[in-house]
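Researcher: I'd like a structural prediction for the single chain below. Treat it as a standalone chain; there are no partners to consider.
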Amino acid sequence: MTPEHNNAIAVRRLKKSLGGKEVLRGVDLEIRRGETMVIIGQSGCGKSVLLKHIVGLHFPDQGEVFIDGQPLNGVSTSERLKLLSEFGMLFQGAALFDSLTIAENVAFRHIQSRKYSQKEMDRIVAEKLEMVGLSGIAHLKPAELSGGMQKRVGLARAIAADPKFILYDEPTTGLDPIMADQINDLILHMQEVLNVTSIAVTHDMVSAYKIADRISMLYQGQVIETDTPDRIQRSKNPYVRQFIRGEAYGPITTVRPFGYTGPSGTKGGKHEAPQ
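Model: Treating it as a single chain, here is the predicted structure.
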């Protein structure tokens, strides 16, 4: 059996250019069944573009994405849609429809498919909202909820169709540390209860270490390291070390004030974190 069939999702030699810029430069990635893979990397390194390829929103210039051993590009439109129907996604800003109630947002995919009666949809909505700790708010509109509650509604919508795969795009962005940790706990809970395969894109290393089975770092359009959280924290790769420690000075260059080399000419500032 090939590696593509052994993994829930396999990305092979994926290349993509957007606006004349090569964003993905031969990405190879394997995601095992039932695991949570967290993808880290700088803004603009291609993390969200990679996610969009996995859910079929982008087509690669070269390379392939396999879902349960099936190539997305080599199947019929109906087979492709069937594969993609197995995905749920929590978008960065929750992406709720302001004009719809919470119930209508959660049941949106079911409303579009017209497969279920109103009574059945009401049951599904109540069940999924209870799973994310938000019973009794189905009648409200998104504007009446806090940012953290909107994220939870977004998660309820992501799991409404009982997906095999859940994708999280910056799930803790814009949340205070306490609410961010509650979202992390919900992600872990979904993994345990639903036994799904998950991919999360994040800049939040606290979140990455908590929810990940494995972490992959994307740098300049390529995966440069994949390992468990414990091993990633002990990585010898200077690019990985700089990113996970949040250090301004290292092989990853950033925009700095002209002539500035750090306080007293050092790289670390007045009080460096212990190594």
